[in-house]
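ARCHIVE CARD
Drawer: 12
Card no.: 0347
Subject: one protein chain, sequence and derived structure
Cross-reference: see card 0346
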Amino acid sequence: MKDWSAAHPLLAERVQALQAMYARRYAPETLVVTSILRSDAQQIALFAQGRQSLAQVNVLRAAAGMTPIDVKANAHRVTNCDGVHNRSRHQGVLYEGRMVSRAVDLAPSWDADGPGTGKPIIDWNDRGRFNRIGPLAESVGLMWGGNWISFQDLPHVELPADVPNTAAVAA
Protein backbone atom coordinates (compact mmCIF):
# COMPACT_ATOMS: atom_id res chain seq x y z
CA MET A 1 0.00 0.00 0.00
CA LYS A 2 1.38 3.36 -1.02
CA ASP A 3 0.87 6.65 0.82
CA TRP A 4 -2.05 8.38 -0.90
CA SER A 5 -1.10 11.71 0.72
CA ALA A 6 1.67 11.83 -1.93
CA ALA A 7 -0.98 12.00 -4.68
CA HIS A 8 -3.21 14.86 -5.81
CA PRO A 9 -6.51 14.13 -3.99
CA LEU A 10 -8.49 13.76 -7.23
CA LEU A 11 -5.83 11.39 -8.60
CA ALA A 12 -6.02 9.26 -5.44
CA GLU A 13 -9.82 9.10 -5.69
CA ARG A 14 -9.79 8.13 -9.36
CA VAL A 15 -7.00 5.55 -9.04
CA GLN A 16 -8.75 3.87 -6.12
CA ALA A 17 -11.93 3.69 -8.21
CA LEU A 18 -9.87 2.20 -11.06
CA GLN A 19 -8.36 -0.40 -8.70
CA ALA A 20 -11.82 -1.40 -7.45
CA MET A 21 -13.17 -1.75 -11.00
CA TYR A 22 -10.16 -3.82 -12.07
CA ALA A 23 -10.47 -6.12 -9.05
CA ARG A 24 -14.19 -6.71 -9.71
CA ARG A 25 -13.63 -7.43 -13.38
CA TYR A 26 -10.39 -9.44 -13.26
CA ALA A 27 -10.38 -11.11 -9.81
CA PRO A 28 -8.23 -12.62 -8.43
CA GLU A 29 -5.94 -10.07 -10.08
CA THR A 30 -5.51 -6.62 -8.56
CA LEU A 31 -3.73 -3.41 -9.54
CA VAL A 32 -0.85 -2.56 -7.24
CA VAL A 33 0.62 0.93 -7.06
CA THR A 34 4.32 0.88 -7.87
CA SER A 35 5.09 4.61 -7.95
CA ILE A 36 3.44 7.87 -6.92
CA LEU A 37 5.61 10.88 -6.03
CA ARG A 38 9.25 10.92 -7.17
CA SER A 39 12.11 13.20 -6.25
CA ASP A 40 14.13 14.86 -8.99
CA ALA A 41 17.00 12.46 -8.21
CA GLN A 42 14.72 9.42 -8.57
CA GLN A 43 13.40 10.66 -11.91
CA ILE A 44 16.93 11.32 -13.20
CA ALA A 45 17.98 7.79 -12.16
CA LEU A 46 14.96 6.25 -13.92
CA PHE A 47 15.71 8.25 -17.07
CA ALA A 48 19.28 6.91 -17.07
CA GLN A 49 17.97 3.33 -17.05
CA GLY A 50 18.47 1.78 -20.46
CA ARG A 51 20.54 4.80 -21.60
CA GLN A 52 23.67 4.60 -19.44
CA SER A 53 25.91 1.82 -18.18
CA LEU A 54 24.64 -0.35 -15.33
CA ALA A 55 27.34 1.07 -13.04
CA GLN A 56 26.31 4.68 -13.81
CA VAL A 57 22.62 3.88 -13.35
CA ASN A 58 23.23 2.22 -9.99
CA VAL A 59 25.31 5.17 -8.76
CA LEU A 60 22.38 7.46 -9.60
CA ARG A 61 19.92 5.04 -7.99
CA ALA A 62 22.01 4.86 -4.81
CA ALA A 63 22.19 8.67 -4.64
CA ALA A 64 18.38 8.77 -4.96
CA GLY A 65 17.87 6.17 -2.22
CA MET A 66 16.77 3.48 -4.69
CA THR A 67 17.82 -0.16 -4.80
CA PRO A 68 20.26 -1.29 -7.50
CA ILE A 69 19.04 -2.99 -10.66
CA ASP A 70 20.59 -5.78 -12.72
CA VAL A 71 21.70 -5.98 -16.35
CA LYS A 72 18.30 -7.28 -17.47
CA ALA A 73 16.44 -4.33 -15.93
CA ASN A 74 18.94 -1.89 -17.43
CA ALA A 75 18.22 -3.21 -20.93
CA HIS A 76 14.95 -1.24 -21.06
CA ARG A 77 14.06 2.42 -20.93
CA VAL A 78 11.32 3.15 -18.43
CA THR A 79 10.64 6.85 -19.00
CA ASN A 80 11.15 9.62 -21.53
CA CYS A 81 11.17 12.33 -18.85
CA ASP A 82 14.70 13.31 -17.86
CA GLY A 83 13.55 15.00 -14.64
CA VAL A 84 15.19 18.32 -15.52
CA HIS A 85 14.16 19.66 -18.94
CA ASN A 86 11.20 17.30 -19.32
CA ARG A 87 9.65 16.77 -15.91
CA SER A 88 7.46 13.80 -15.12
CA ARG A 89 3.96 14.20 -13.67
CA HIS A 90 5.34 12.02 -10.85
CA GLN A 91 7.68 14.83 -9.77
CA GLY A 92 4.84 16.71 -8.24
CA VAL A 93 3.13 20.06 -8.07
CA LEU A 94 2.39 22.32 -5.14
CA TYR A 95 -1.08 21.62 -3.74
CA GLU A 96 -2.25 23.23 -0.49
CA GLY A 97 1.34 23.80 0.64
CA ARG A 98 2.71 20.34 -0.16
CA MET A 99 4.10 18.53 -3.17
CA VAL A 100 1.77 15.93 -4.71
CA SER A 101 2.02 13.74 -7.77
CA ARG A 102 -0.32 14.04 -10.73
CA ALA A 103 0.60 10.50 -11.88
CA VAL A 104 0.61 6.94 -10.58
CA ASP A 105 2.18 3.78 -11.96
CA LEU A 106 0.17 0.58 -11.56
CA ALA A 107 0.83 -3.07 -12.29
CA PRO A 108 -1.57 -6.00 -12.63
CA SER A 109 -0.65 -8.60 -10.02
CA TRP A 110 -1.87 -11.86 -8.65
CA ASP A 111 -0.93 -14.01 -5.69
CA ALA A 112 -0.31 -17.56 -6.86
CA ASP A 113 -0.75 -18.91 -3.30
CA GLY A 114 -3.90 -16.92 -2.53
CA PRO A 115 -4.41 -13.54 -0.88
CA GLY A 116 -1.94 -12.68 1.83
CA THR A 117 0.12 -15.86 1.67
CA GLY A 118 2.88 -14.89 -0.72
CA LYS A 119 4.43 -12.09 -2.66
CA PRO A 120 2.19 -10.91 -5.51
CA ILE A 121 3.43 -11.74 -8.99
CA ILE A 122 3.89 -9.01 -11.61
CA ASP A 123 4.74 -9.92 -15.19
CA TRP A 124 6.12 -6.67 -16.61
CA ASN A 125 6.12 -8.18 -20.12
CA ASP A 126 2.44 -9.20 -20.18
CA ARG A 127 1.04 -6.45 -22.43
CA GLY A 128 -2.39 -8.06 -22.41
CA ARG A 129 -2.80 -7.51 -18.69
CA PHE A 130 -1.42 -3.97 -18.87
CA ASN A 131 -3.70 -3.13 -21.81
CA ARG A 132 -6.70 -3.78 -19.56
CA ILE A 133 -5.77 -0.67 -17.57
CA GLY A 134 -6.37 1.81 -20.40
CA PRO A 135 -10.13 1.64 -20.95
CA LEU A 136 -10.82 1.47 -17.22
CA ALA A 137 -8.52 4.43 -16.50
CA GLU A 138 -10.24 6.50 -19.16
CA SER A 139 -13.67 5.58 -17.74
CA VAL A 140 -12.73 7.23 -14.42
CA GLY A 141 -11.26 10.35 -16.07
CA LEU A 142 -7.56 9.46 -16.19
CA MET A 143 -5.11 9.55 -19.09
CA TRP A 144 -3.26 6.30 -19.79
CA GLY A 145 0.38 6.19 -20.90
CA GLY A 146 -0.34 3.21 -23.14
CA ASN A 147 -2.02 5.60 -25.60
CA TRP A 148 1.14 7.63 -26.13
CA ILE A 149 2.68 7.32 -29.58
CA SER A 150 6.40 7.99 -29.05
CA PHE A 151 6.83 6.05 -25.81
CA GLN A 152 4.13 3.76 -24.51
CA ASP A 153 4.17 3.75 -20.71
CA LEU A 154 1.70 0.95 -19.93
CA PRO A 155 1.77 1.22 -16.10
CA HIS A 156 1.26 5.02 -16.13
CA VAL A 157 -1.98 6.91 -15.45
CA GLU A 158 -2.27 10.63 -14.80
CA LEU A 159 -4.73 13.45 -14.32
CA PRO A 160 -5.66 15.30 -17.50
CA ALA A 161 -4.02 18.71 -17.99
CA ASP A 162 -7.34 20.52 -17.43
CA VAL A 163 -7.53 19.38 -13.78
CA PRO A 164 -6.25 22.30 -11.69
CA ASN A 165 -3.38 21.93 -9.22
CA THR A 166 -5.35 23.87 -6.61
CA ALA A 167 -8.27 22.90 -4.43
CA ALA A 168 -11.71 24.02 -5.56
CA VAL A 169 -12.85 27.22 -3.88
CA ALA A 170 -16.34 27.14 -2.37
CA ALA A 171 -18.62 29.82 -3.76
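Annotation on reverse: Helices lie at 9-26, 40-48, 54-63, 127-131, 133-139. The radius of gyration is 16 Å.
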